Amino acid sequence: MPNQLASSRNGHSSEKLHAKCEDCFGLCCVALPFAASADFALDKEGGTPCKNLQPDFRCGIHHNLRQKGFKGCTVYECFGAGQKVSQITYQGKDWRKHPETAKEMYAVFPIMQQLHEMLWYLTEALSLKETEMIHSELLQAIDQTEKLTLLSSKLLKELDVSKHRAEVNTLLLETSKLVRAGFQQKQKNNRGANLIGAKMKKANLRGANLRGAYLIAADLREADLRNVDFIGADLRDANLSGSDLTGSIFLTQAQINAAIGDAKTKLPPSLTKPIHWEAE
């Protein structure tokens, strides 16, 4: 796969940015709150363990989350922040055996999640041939962000994440322009647009800017979504059946898991078709 080869050539891989639940203390199942809705079967306050969390920190209904009413869990991605906090920041000391760390650990986890998300996007940007002219800047940003993830829990809590995100976003915007060059003049800027339920079947959206767009339940069947910037886009129940997303950037597995698709949907090589697509 070109992306993986480019990333490896530069000494940076996205492998460590995948969640490894077996090395995590179930932090997303404890630290984060959720409300009873179409995505969750019940209410849960932040800092309270989910009723499905087992003594070994694994989910008791992991293989049946959608059927049990916990679809929201299947579309969450920590980008490997869980194992970083559990094994590096807290050196393997879990919140059950060391309850004095619990409150702070729950506060540190979402901060680490944001840093790892930035690392994911930066690593993807570095892997693209279109970004060769800014590789040195991307490498510097990756190294700087990685150093921040290794800070102590106290310093992480004091970190100005918004400021760092703004600096990283400058590079991600430049990446987007480079990837979408040649198509931008043909596309309306839909950054942050409200496209909930929009009818865009077979639409030519190649090279479009859909950063932060609300595409909930949008009809994108058989649409041309190549070279699209999807960073932060809400694809919950968006119908991607038969659409072509090859060459799109900043699209995550969590976003794809939240959408609807079929065997004809074409995805970037780094993403896989969710099992529930086959059922639907």
| Total number of strands | 0
Number of helices: 10
Helix-and-strand structural type: mainly alpha
Main sheet characteristics: none
Residue share in helix: 25-40%
Q: What's the SSE pattern? A: HHHHHHHHHH
What does this structure look like?
The protein has 280 residues and is an all-alpha fold. The two termini are 28 Å apart. It contains 10 helices and no strands.
Question: Concise description?
Answer:
With 280 residues, the chain is an all-alpha fold.
Q: What's the layout of helices and strands?
A:
Layout lengths: L1 H8 L17 H4 L40 H4 L6 H9 L12 H26 L7 H15 L3 H6 L2 H20 L72 H6 L16 H5 L1
Provide key terms for this protein:
single chain, 280 residues, mainly alpha, 10 helices, 37% helix, disordered N terminus
